[in-house]
Write the structure tokens for this entry.
Amino acid sequence: MNQAANNYEPMLPAAPRVESQATSIEQSRAVAEVQAMVVVAKQTPRITAHAVAMLDEETAIMDVAERAFYRYSRGGSAVTGPSITLAKTLARCWGNITYGLVELRRDDVKGESEVMATAWDLESNVRDSTTFIVKHIRERKEGSVKLTDTRDIYELIANQGARRMREMILSVLPSWYVDRAKANSRKTLADGGGKPLAERIAAAVGLFAELGVNVEQLEARQGRGTNGWTGQDLAILRVIGRAIENGETTVAEEFPSRAASVEDLTGPTQQAANNQVTVQQSPRESTDPPEDLMEKLKESLSEPAEPKPATRTQLARVRAVMSDEKVPADEQANWLGAQVNRGIEKITDLTHDEADTIVSEFTREGK
């Protein structure tokens, strides 16, 4: 036998992958848990009358009603809908429903995670799910920031997954049940726990005054004066105030200062403003209180100014949103037009407010 034959070592097949005992136990436990939930749901079916009574009781609570809706501006009008908080309340009252978020894959090289949101009515066996990609990026005014901290990534996934999970929950619930919850919540907000609306408005103004936000900023944020506020407006302001107090957002982010200047005004509007400046500098009008002068200036600016174009930073955020939503390049203009309720031909046609609307729609909790 030659030397080559003596040195020959046969190729051995790779050893099969052996799962650990802990992994096998966990898999068996998960399967048994799902089977048990289905069996229990079949053995203890929901009673619709009890579910409705529980819903009516929950939505009559002011704290629940105040968290029941999200709201943002689009194309100059307000868009509202049931929040993730209300969706979870509905699932709990309806019963025999399980829901959640699962991170299927994390790619630290690409900086993204694949996530699945699910909701399952165990009694009727109606299930809905969706998978989506979450980029490990946090959008800021200064630009995008790549996230590497595990906690930051977890919070980002939870935030972006909230609106998908909300849609999954609502998709397995009866539409009449959801409509009843919204109607009850609006009624509770309008009632305000028995307190007069004027008293609640004064309390909200006082709360934000302590945070350094004046009435003009509040009115600009809500798009109308305090005399036109509703119970839902106050609920939105309460959520914002709580977020500021908890450090989740800042006054500058929620109430950007945008003082009117002569450079911002054009045409007849600019001439009206210049006339008011002349009156303000006139000795005859110098005794007027500043509030009167501001009211006169507001009245003179009846003609709206030309919309400001979106900034480069805003456009970058919009592109990031479209990337997250996987919008094809040939459909981007149509997609953007649908978001702002007007026809546009390219991204750069967006206005300052429209770009903010698109980004806020996909970054606010439960949107």
Q: What stands out?
A: The chain has four domains: 36-181, 195-254, 266-300, 312-363. Residues 36-181 form one domain.
